[in-house]
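As the work plan foresaw, the team has encoded backbone shapes as discrete tokens. One protein thus recorded appears below exactly as we store it.

:::
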Amino acid sequence: MGNLPSLYSRFIYSAAFAIFALFFFTTSVHGSAFRILDQSASATGQGTAFAAQANDASALYFNPAGMTQLRGVQLSVGTLLLGARTKFKSANGTRTKGNFGGTISTPLPSHLYLTANLQDLGSEFLKDWTIGLGLMSPYGISVEYPDDSSLTFLAKKVSLPLIDIKPTAALKVNDYISIGGGVDIYTFASFLGEGQAEIEQTAAPGNPFGLPVGTSLEANGTDTALGFNASVLWTPWRNDDGNPLVNLAFVYRSGADLKLDGQFRANGTLVADASTTIELPHVFSWGLAVWPIRDSYQEWKIEVDVDYEDWSEFEDLNLNLSNGVTVPFARNYGDAFVVMIGTEYTWLQPDILPHWQVAARAGYVYSESPIPSSSFEPSVPDSAYSAPSVGLGLTCTTGGSFLGIFPCEGFGVKAIGLDLAYQVLLFQTRGVNNNINPTLVNGKWDTTIHVGALTFRMNF
């Protein structure tokens, strides 16, 4: 107990840093409708197959039960560099290109995790508990099309800068089983883009408002909704040092209803108050990780994860106006499976980099799409995709120096880490021929997204 004040001081300092970092967070779009799988560079490098490994602070998202594997206080802050290209060739041969509004999506989608092992903070009564706080963007949209495109009758610019604040806790039940869970607070913030969901269109011929063709239309809204998550990590087999050789994981993330309230404007002038509802999916995840090699010099992990996404409650996005007009937007989403395969090889004491741990990573994702062709639309140009990835992890420990300048131990810091990853999402060409807006949407859609991930870690 003699070092308790110092440990609490480290927690307070890292918490203050985390709160400061919140002001740089935002969101974007890709994959599995508008669900974002990439929530840390260490996981992205392994095709996001990380639920059963879950051995850094991003466990708070991928499998909260895995937080019981973490020592002391751990802070992880990272971001994504996203570049996208959507190409559309209509049934009559017209070609259109869309993107995230630029070469790189801005502001940058980011993530933050802060965890604390309560035994290491001096609590014997709560020695089996680990707590954490996370902030990330598990869902998001950011799409833009040229002003002269006919697609602007449906979507000229769409933004869903949704964030998820995650207070989380985990309990080590025994040496084999840990459980975890927490609350998901989905909300918007004024420092993220416009701080609200927005869709911009141009008025089409025969629009229900009687407005001239080409009139600029905008609908927006905000809300805060609650969900929850629960998880289990089972370790049936460990080596002599007590490190897992086999881990099995299960994670459940509940759905949530965002009841967006805002305004509907024409050429910037308020027409009516507006409301709609977005139903976020229930997500069930299973994971299996195996370490064929794990000793004091090297570790090799292979993992397979499967997600089942139930989007079936997302039936429409009807816009209800206070003047009594309802603008229908059918969605009729279904369900989708996502398969993730990843591997990580770690050199714990490499001769070429003493006092460092070096991890090489690779992975692959295959995702189905929950969006039927009949309600496919330009704001979420989704289809089934394949996504290979590679990554590198560097962890500087006692005796080392980060960037050759900063000692990796001292001032309460025990280790400093940097994770890098690259992933490319190759969406299958999607032929749409039975859409509810046939003259605007029927044709061929091709999308490619490039993801660069960066995460900085500090262990206290």
Notes: The radius of gyration is 23 Å.
